[in-house]
Amino acid sequence: MMDSRRDFLKKAGILSSLAVSLPTLVNANTAAESFNMCGYAAPKIDKVRVAVIGLGMRGPGAVERLSFIEGCEIVALCDKHPDRVERATKIVTSKGLTAPKAYSGEDGWKSLLKEEKLDLVYICTPWDYHTPMSIAAMKAGNHVACEVPIALTIKDCWEVVKTSEATKKHCMMLENCCYDFFEMLTLNMVRQGLFGELVHAEGAYIHDLLDLNFAKNGYDNMWRLRENIKLNGNLYPTHGLGPVAQCLNINRGDKMDHLVAMSSNDFMMGEKAKVLAAKDSFFQEFVGKKYRGNMNTTLIRTAKGKTIMLQHDVTSPRPYSRLHTLSGTKGFAQKYPTENIAFGHEFITEQKLKELYDKYTPELVKYIGEQAKQVGGHGGMDFMMDWRLIDCLRNGLPLDQDVYDAASWSCIVPLSFESVEKNCKTVDVPDFTKGAWKNNTPVEITLKGGGNTPIRSRSAKKENIQLGV
């Protein structure tokens, strides 16, 4: 296990060095005086020029969604495999839009950053590339939106933070679950005091990916299965953590202080590898590996004495769940298995829940929610995230998720591994805000100063027809 960890850390270090070696087009001296990116409003960008890197699992959907947003121009696409770039290009041109410039090959992304004039780099690659690509993109003068997690080591979390501060470029992790409808409802209810003082929250990523992780034509070079060998901890914390962290005002009035983590043994992945290898020699290299345990449970305590429970299980055959549980001094909310809210010992009726939706759904969701459902992406939350990002950049507004969120939500990956490896030892959570959390203000969920970014029609023949925005 220790050998695989050393190989992983060595690889991460090599990849990070790639970002440093790229030409610096703006002054990105990470030793510069710290600048607080929380609440930072970058200069307005009327037309956001975007490059999407990584066109495997998540990238094509991002291209599709971004192509619906006016004021967003997809100028370049990149993937290691040229056929993926070709397919994604057709998504853009099928809507009557100009074909983006194509980049491919292992180093295509580096050529893209050198040659293209961009505003935003949208990263959808395997996890190992997130940190070096994000750092290089910011140093090249671009804002960054990156799929989760932003980094896999504490060192890389700090490097991403320092680079964002030095360049004054946004680095937003694309935690789409923050934009799900029940999560947004409960966030606003928390802000309105309906739950009283939050005491405890729970989040999770419980999703049976066993067959997909072992699928030969799934993740490129079986990269996600390999991640389940590298680290025995919570490999995917942000889907559950992001929404509850916003409810608890983490990095904006409170901070995560320390954690403990425990993992079960692996009861399925090792056996799955043996069964598959008996029929197909392709899987032989995965036999005998020490896989991450089925279930990881991580407990976090905040500086103000709140607690968070996170769970991660992508192996066991059980229904999907992100938990999203909030427990306060006046009320309780829980998303899975069904959406429920209580202000006492019993859940409210379905009619009362509807009334809460009508009254407390945030302005952002009321404005864009139905259009987001039409465009799609996990029921609309992906598109709401993308539209909100572009609208904030176009209007010079702070982003809903900043680089400190990216780092603190992602750092649970290595910290949970460290705690598990040391027999559930308590591990401190770094303060990536360097004390600024005490005065940082909560995320804004209104449309104040923005909300003026239109959406293109789903039909290329009706380019001027908006979807009711």
UniProtKB/TrEMBL annotation:
Instruction: List required co-factors.
Output: NAD(+)
Chain ranges of the Gfo/Idh/MocA-like oxidoreductase N-terminal domain: 48-173
Q: Which domain of life is it from?
A: Bacteria
Domain (Glycosyl hydrolase 109 C-terminal) ranges: 184-341
Which PROSITE patterns has this protein been placed in?
TAT
Q: Name one GO molecular function term.
A: nucleotide binding
Spell out the Pfam families in the cross-references: GFO_IDH_MocA (PF01408), Glyco_hydro_109_C (PF21252)
- Cite the entry's keywords alphabetically: Glycosidase, Hydrolase, NAD
> SUPFAM superfamilies given for it?
NAD(P)-binding Rossmann-fold domains
Family that this chain belongs to? Belongs to the Gfo/Idh/MocA family. Glycosyl hydrolase 109 subfamily.
The record's PANTHER family line, in alphabetical order, gives:
BCDNA.GH03377, GLYCOSYL HYDROLASE FAMILY 109 PROTEIN
Name this protein carries in UniProt: Acetylgalactosaminidase
What lineage is this protein's organism placed in? Bacteria, Pseudomonadati, Bacteroidota, Sphingobacteriia, Sphingobacteriales
